[in-house]
Structure formats: C-alpha cells, structure tokens
C-alpha cells in the first residue's frame, strides 16, 4: 500500500506491485507466516556501490583496507589493532562526484514531492490509512507504534521506549529533547528508512528507484 500510494502521488520510481501472496502456513503459536510480494524489478545498483565506484583510493590505503577485511573475516584481533594504528598515517581517499549532478537533482525532486503530499491531519503521526507505524525505532516485537493523535504523544512514546532499557538516562534525554518537544513540526509522508542501500542508481547516473517502503508513514 505504501508503494502504491507513492506511485499514485509522486513521480518517484518505485516497484510496481502485481500481487501480494499470503502464506497458507502458520507458526507454532498459530499466527500466519509472512507471505511475499510479486513486483517489478528495478534495474540499477545501490547508491552505496555507485559512490564506492567513484572513490579514489591510494594503493597503500587500498592494501591496508584489504588486510583489514581479512583480519575481520578471520577474527584476528591483534592484526586488526595493528592495522587500525596505521590509519592516521595513510594517504587520504577522495570522491569524484563530478557526474552526480543529475542524481542530486533527481533525489531533491523525489524528496520534495514526497514531502509535498498533504497529510490527512496536521498533527497525527501514523502509518498510511491511520494504521500503526512499522518502526525501526521500536525494538519491541511486533515493532509497531501508534497511531498517535499528536506528535507530542509520538515523541513521548519514543522516549518511553528508551526508558525501558536505559531508564536512568531519560531525565537527561528529556532535557536535551526539550527544544524538539516544544516545536510543532510539519507532518510529511516519510520513507523512514532511507539509506544508501535503498536508493538505486542507473548506469547513466539517474535515479533508478527507491525501495523498501515498509516503515513509511506520516511522520
């Protein structure tokens, strides 16, 4: 539903959903197992890979990075410590993003379109169609939050979740958060898990698509 909503209201390239197949199986406690989507494929590479291909790495730095990967893979903590000590003296790396103008413009347009969709309510924080939010900020199964009738209620819930694990830190966090708690923010439809693996780029440097919308909602 999130992907269909984005496709209907923006020009952001997202997978086309053909069908949602529910699983006929159940877990040991009687709950239905997860099904799967049938959707179109987006051809492109992740933004992480696209950027890494434009990295200019000195051969000596590349050699140490390869050794670092080998130490991590083998669990060699002594070798890892020795290599980390070399980092301050290694030649710095750089990025050649001279061909990124189109991608930057595509991303700017995509996020502007997303944030321009009028919210159904100026203060409600929720998933699409007043559903709960599927949130990576929620560490407690089933990883859902809300719906919240006000953004202040949402902010307080986030702080309460922190308090379940780090109760002694909540008073200090509340003091730090006071400027945020007092400000009334604009509600926008938000991806909520936008990182370099979820942004796909075409060979010509144009935005190919944005994927993994399960955490999206009105934030």
Sequence-ordered SSE layout with sheet pairings:
Blueprint: H1 2-9, E1 17-21, E2 36-39, E3 45-46, H2 47-52, E4 55-56, H3 59-74, H4 77-86, E5 94-95, H5 101-116, E6 133-134, E7 144-145, H6 151-165, H7 170-182, E8 189-190, E9 199-201, E10 207-210, E11 217-218
Antiparallel strand pairs: 1-2, 3-9, 4-5, 6-7, 8-11, 9-10
Helix pairs in contact: 3-4, 6-7
Count every helix, treating DSSP H or I runs of 4 or more residues as helices: 7
Helicity range: 25-40%
Terminal residue distance: 17 Å
Shape: globular
Give Rg in angstroms. 22 Å
Described by strand count, sense and barrel closure, the largest sheet is: 3 strands, antiparallel
Strand content: 5-15%
Please sum up the structure shown.
The chain is 38% helix and 14% strand. It is of the alpha+beta class. The model has no long low-confidence stretch (mean pLDDT 90).
């Amino acid at each position: 539903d999130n992907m269909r909503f984005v496709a209907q209201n923006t020009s952001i390239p997202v997978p086309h959903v053909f069908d949602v197949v529910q699983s006929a199986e159940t877990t040991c406690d009687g709950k239905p197992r997860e099904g799967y989507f049938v959707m179109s494929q987006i051809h492109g590479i992740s933004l992480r890979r696209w950027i890494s291909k434009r990295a200019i790495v000195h051969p000596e730095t590349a050699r140490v990075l390869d050794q670092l990967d080998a130490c991590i893979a083998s669990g060699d903590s002594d070798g890892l410590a020795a290599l980390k000590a070399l980092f301050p003296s290694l030649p710095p790396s750089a990025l050649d993003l001279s061909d990124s103008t189109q991608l930057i413009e595509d991303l700017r347009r995509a996020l502007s379109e997303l944030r321009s969709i009028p919210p159904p309510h100026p203060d409600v924080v929720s998933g699409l169609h007043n559903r709960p939010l599927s949130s990576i900020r929620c560490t407690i199964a089933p990883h859902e939050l809300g719906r919240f009738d006000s953004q202040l209620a949402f902010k307080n819930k986030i702080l309460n979740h922190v308090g379940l694990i780090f109760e002694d830190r909540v008073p200090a966090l509340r003091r730090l958060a006071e400027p945020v708690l007092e400000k009334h923010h604009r509600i926008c439809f938000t991806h909520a898990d936008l990182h370099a693996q979820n942004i796909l780029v075409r060979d010509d440097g144009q935005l190919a698509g944005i994927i993994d919308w399960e955490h999206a909602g009105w934030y």
